[in-house]
Specification:
Layout: H1 9-12, E1 13-18, E2 21-33, H2 35-38, H3 44-48, H4 51-54, E3 65-76, E4 79-83, H5 103-110, E5 120-122, H6 128-131, E6 135-137, E7 145-147, E8 153-157, H7 158-165, H8 176-179, H9 181-185, E9 189-192, E10 196-197, E11 202-206, E12 215-221, E13 224-228, H10 237-240, H11 252-266, E14 272-274, E15 283-289, E16 292-297
Parallel strand pairs: 4-5, 5-8, 8-9, 13-14
Antiparallel strand pairs: 1-2, 2-3, 3-4, 6-7, 10-11, 11-12, 12-13, 14-15, 15-16
């Protein structure tokens, strides 16, 4: 993987109006990844079958898939809800180039979301690139990790938390001990059963497979609907190739079944799908084709 680059202010923010609710994207980084770096099945021939609809947003001129790491602020019913907190100020040994310091928190503040004004933090799952800014180093120089968002309640799906709490090998949840546990120890965490409603407009749907307790985030207001995917797909091509496996999946067969269910429920519908790892514009709709399904990019 090439070194990730921070998105600039203009590219890093995108806003969607979902009825009375608002979703704002904060981009932490984006990097080109060879397709086989995502999926073992992504041979050049297999990718070429989809090039006409993947390019230019999701397949670049060099044949790479852009990988975005980004979070979203949902403003709903007077609450500011932060969905996923990216890599943050930490390095993961296998992915040293993804560490971005405190850029994500600074960009949140620049977008009008100071860390002490976040009401809810929710993580679609507990892999390292979705929990990184949950915590920060204590300012006293002790090296302790403390919650970044001191006035927020952090929501973790109970199944997800208990799975990684009991795991002998944390794997892709390698930062569980310093990005999740300090939040629990500070008394700011809520372990929720899913489905779970956060506000009248926002709720969590169980979408297991990538991890046991993975959730998608739904936002609906005044007849407008959106879904933030988390990692139920890593790239739009997985809506066309639902069986493609990702190395970080806990259960790839279950992940494929989740995608099939969502396609059956939402293809050719009005649901705006916002992909957590999708490159800009990162939103669109699921459509049926003669060959099956695909993702149609749409900024709105």
């Amino acid at each position: 993987m090439e070194r990730a680059e921070r998105g600039d202010e203009r590219a890093g923010r995108r806003t969607w109006r979902i009825g009375d609710a608002t979703i704002t994207r904060i981009l932490e980084s984006v990097a080109p990844v060879p397709p086989a770096g995502f999926f073992a099945e992504a041979t050049p021939e297999a990718v070429a079958r989809h090039a006409s609809w993947l390019a230019p947003h999701f397949l670049d001129a060099d044949g790479h898939f852009p990988l975005a790491i980004q979070g979203f602020v949902v403003e709903s019913c007077g609450r500011r809800i932060l969905v996923d907190t990216c890599m943050g100020d930490r390095e993961v040994p296998a992915f040293p180039d993804l560490a971005m310091g405190d850029a994500f928190v600074r960009d949140l503040a620049a977008a009008g979301f100071a860390r002490d004004e976040i009401d809810v933090v929710l993580c679609t799952h507990l892999h390292f690139d979705h929990v990184g800014s949950n915590t920060m180093r204590a300012p006293d120089g002790s090296g302790r990790w403390i919650p970044t968002f001191p006035n927020a309640r952090y929501l973790f799906a109970r199944v997800e938390y208990e799975h990684w709490k009991g795991a002998e090998d944390a794997g892709f949840a390698a930062t569980f001990g310093d990005a999740v546990e300090p939040v629990v120890e500070a008394g700011l965490a809520e372990l929720v059963e899913v489905p779970h409603r956060v506000t009248d407009e926002v709720w969590l749907e169980p979408t297991p497979g990538h991890t046991p307790g993975h959730v998608a985030v739904h936002v609906a207001s005044r007849g407008v609907r959106a879904m933030i995917t988390g990692d139920l797909t890593h790239h739009p091509i997985q809506w066309a190739e639902v069986d493609w496996k990702m190395a970080a999946d806990s259960d790839s067969a279950q992940a494929a079944a989740t995608r099939r269910r969502l396609l059956a429920e939402h293809a050719d519908g009005d649901l705006l799908v916002i992909g957590t790892h999708y490159a800009d514009p990162c939103s669109g709709r699921l459509v049926r084709t003669d060959a099956g399904f695909r993702f149609r990019a749409s900024p709105r």
